[in-house]
Design goal:
This protein is of the alpha+beta class. It is built from 13 helices and 13 strands. It is globular, with a radius of gyration of 20 Å.
């Protein structure tokens, strides 16, 4: 699947200040039938999968992300390479013009972590990764505490999760007002500080910061796990919940989605917190321990709609289906905390589902029916359930 979706080529002078420069690229598109371009966090997951059978292509996929980096260190969440964005998507993608080489917004920054997992060497030895991190710190750490902020829902990678409706309302991703949010952020230069200063919503989101924390640890930097706990952990509910800011007022998101469990992937998460997440929520009846774990919204929530992912032209993907990447991140925590029976159950659920249904973008959490785009790249993460550590890199578990 990753092999059949592999794309290569040469990109000429992607940015005005790099005249005459040609960039060779190679990546797997997330789905040949629906997603033709390179997506940031998809490519990181592709590289992790591919390290098992073609580490050189793992390197090339991640280096293609770095090759598309602007001189200031920014990497867009979608890179168009030699396939211009089509007319239909032009109004819903975060671009300045139809000739933009990439989107002007980010995705969860897990590149350094993926680089380490893939066994490509010490990410500290790659100066472009350091430059990328400097951009993130300079442009998205609004409070100076090491945590990153996003300016619109799709920067989290969780696009249409219902948790974003609390902050963005009718302008959240998957709603008809989303193009208005794009127009606003385009006018403000896609700057998080400009958006916040104008009183518009910005969010400190859990998944973005969990993956950022893993990348920082991979770079040998100070852990931000204590700040993640301090900002997001709700002691009363026993969940990690995003916070958002409108003007000077900061609020906590109320709805329980799988991102509340994402900190289980952190190797230095306090054990008592991890066990509470597992015992009270992951394994609790009716929330997340469905036959195919982990639904993207707690099954106990009113917003849980695993089958209503496509309503007319609007696709709302994160309303309840189970995704391979989120299941894998949660599974890492189960393994780390010693839940062998439960982690084995998750492994068998995903391997059996994949064998029956094949590779899909996401799966119905009860029946296991494959849904969304066919031949979806990061669903290859099921290989991690069968053989989690082929290179002996046990430190990342």
């Amino acid at each position: 699947m990753l092999t059949s979706s592999w794309r290569t080529g040469v990109w000429a002078a992607p940015y005005p200040d790099t005249p005459g420069e040609e960039v060779e690229f190679g990546y797997s598109c997330p789905s040949p039938t629906h997603y033709p371009w390179q997506w940031y966090w998809d490519s990181c997951f592709h590289a992790i999968c591919r390290r098992r059978f073609d580490r050189e292509r793992s390197r090339r996929e991640l280096e293609s992300l770095l090759a598309a980096m602007r001189p200031d260190g920014f990497i867009g969440h979608t890179i168009f390479w030699n396939t211009p964005i089509d007319r239909l998507r032009r109004f819903t993608y975060n671009i300045d013009s139809s000739t933009s080489p990439t989107t002007s917004t980010m995705q969860p920054p897990l590149l350094a972590w993926a680089w380490k997992i893939c066994g490509l060497g010490d990410p500290r030895d790659e100066p472009r990764i350091a430059r990328h991190h400097e951009w993130l710190k300079s442009e998205r750490d609004l409070d100076g505490d090491g945590l990153l902020w996003i300016i619109q829902p799709d920067e989290s990678g969780l696009d249409s999760s219902p948790k974003f409706e609390e902050a963005w309302g009718s302008r959240a991703h998957g709603h008809l007002g989303f193009p208005l949010l794009l127009r606003q952020n385009r006018h403000l230069g896609w700057s998080a500080r400009a958006v916040a200063d104008a009183g518009h919503p910005v969010m400190c989101e859990v998944v973005v910061n969990v993956l950022w924390a893993l990348s920082l640890l991979s770079m040998g930097e100070e852990s931000i796990t204590p700040r993640i706990v301090e900002r997001f952990w709700d002691e009363d509910r026993g969940l990690f919940l995003d916070t958002y800011r409108k003007g000077s007022k900061e609020q906590q998101v109320d709805i329980s989605t799988w991102s509340a469990l994402a900190p289980l992937a952190l190797p230095d998460l306090p054990e008592e917190i991890g066990r509470r997440l597992v015992e009270e929520h992951l394994l609790a009846s009716g929330e997340y321990w469905t036959p195919v774990q982990v639904p993207s919204v707690a099954a106990s929530e009113k917003a849980f709609e695993p089958r209503k992912w496509k309503t007319g032209p609007i696709r709302r993907y994160w309303m309840g289906p189970s995704w391979g990447n989120s299941a894998w991140l949660v599974w890492l925590g189960l393994k780390r905390l010693g839940y062998e029976k439960e982690s084995a159950e998750m492994e068998q659920a995903w391997l059996g589902c994949y064998e029956r249904e094949g590779s899909w973008e996401f799966y119905e959490p009860y029946s296991g029916e494959g849904m969304g785009a066919r031949d979806f790249g990061w669903t290859s993460l099921v290989a991690e359930f069968a053989d989690p550590d082929p290179l002996g890199l046990t430190s990342w578990i």
